[in-house]
Amino acid sequence: MQSRQKLKAEDGLGRKLHEQPEVANWGKQGTGPKMERGLVICIEPMINAGKKETIQMRDGWTIKTADGKPSAHFEYAVAVDKGKAEVLTTFEFIEKVLNKM
To answer: What is the pTM of this model?
Structure first.
């Protein structure tokens, strides 16, 4: 069983952490805020090996799966320009380290 948890929302990227707009990382195509030119947003999916339920820890930041199964959370920064999205995030440095192993 795999699940994608729906508690996390994507956020705008700018000079502060977690800027507006906040956009849900799930939904029905064609609904929700329109992605317009100039928008820079972080897309942060969380994929769980088990159920979708999560628990937020007392630190207000850490999220764990309720069933204790492994989970992966990663982030892509994306800029919208002229009707297309450009991925700004690179995994080049991570790939270099992994290739040395």
So the answer is: 0.61
